[in-house]
Amino acid sequence: MPADRLHSEQVFHDAQAADRAARFADLSALRFRDADYLDHEPWIRPAFDLLGDVAGRRVLDYGCGHGMAAVVLARHGAGVTGIDLSAGYVAEAQRRAAANEVEVDFRQADAERLPFPDRSFDAIWGCAILHHLDLERAGAELRRALRPGGVAVFCEPWGENPLVQFARRFLPYPGKHRTPDERPLRAADLTPLRDHFPNLVVRGFQFFGMIRRVVRREGRADGRLDRWDAALLRRWPRVENWCRYVVIRMIRA
Questions:
Q1: Which residues, in sequence order, are CB contacts of 97 under 8 Å at separation 6+?
Q2: What is the mean pLDDT of residues 114-122?
Q3: Three-state SS for 122?
Q4: Helices (H), 78-235
Q5: pLDDT at residue 212 above 80?
Q6: Distance CA 252, CA 238 (A)
Q7: Cβ neighbours around 71 below 10 Å, total
Q8: What is the CA radius of gyration of the chain?
Q9: 3-class secondary structure, 219
């Protein structure tokens, strides 16, 4: 990652982590159930399932952020390493692992220059990380770090729906924070990843459900939107290209 972009991303996420720090001053505030993470968005649990049984396997949480995914992976028996560019988020992730009584090796690192030997990991997990990166560099590093047969799974914002792009650009909604250089992935952006992982598969999530980003709905309304999405995408899978988020799976040959 170019030095100016690296610095910009680091400053943004360190500031974000600092804003969160007061909420988690007490370790008890960092404790959570697996379901709190796996079910907070409709694509997380299905994406986790694509990793398979992680017990006894070495897993990299690539862009670990707050560390919730790393904790869930460790609870499932994985030997987990988490990396993030932000020292602030690494510190939060370390405290979250301690609060939930699991062992995770967290390190501050650039995702485009991984500090690990070749073939270090059986699986790699990432959430909202690839769209920050140069995918040629990232793809090469992901392939290098994975063992043959290893799987990498990513959840990423998707940019093929012009209405979603309009909303992201112009409409106010909770959690609308982004760095100057990031933008949702599009189909053409995946070409460098396919060069390293020809078996790459993309699955879309949240078509009707994206409404809740602008008009916040709770409980039964949320469940109804998710059910409509499931029925729609099962019947017309091509609609996945117009969804808000995608899950990307890649297997190292």
A1: 67, 70, 71, 74, 103, 104, 106
A2: 98
A3: strand
A4: 87-99, 135-145, 162-170, 191-196, 220-235
A5: no
A6: 26
A7: 28
A8: 18
A9: coil
**Bridge partner residues of 126 (DSSP):** 154
Q: 3-class DSSP state for residue 246? A: strand
What predicted TM-score, i.e. pTM, was given to this entire model? Answer: 0.89
Question: How confident is the model at residue 211, as a pLDDT?
Answer: 73
Q: What is the distance between the alpha carbons of residues 89 and 11, in angstroms, rounded to a whole number? A: 11
- Position 11, amino acid: V
How many alpha carbons lie under 13 Å from residue 103 in its C-beta half-sphere?
4
Q: How many CB atoms lie within 10 A of CB 234?
A: 8
- For residue 30, name the pLDDT band (cuts at 50, 70, 90): very high
Q: Do residues 165 and 184 make contact, with C-beta atoms less than 8 angstroms apart? A: yes
Residues in the chain: 253
- SS3 category, 28: helix
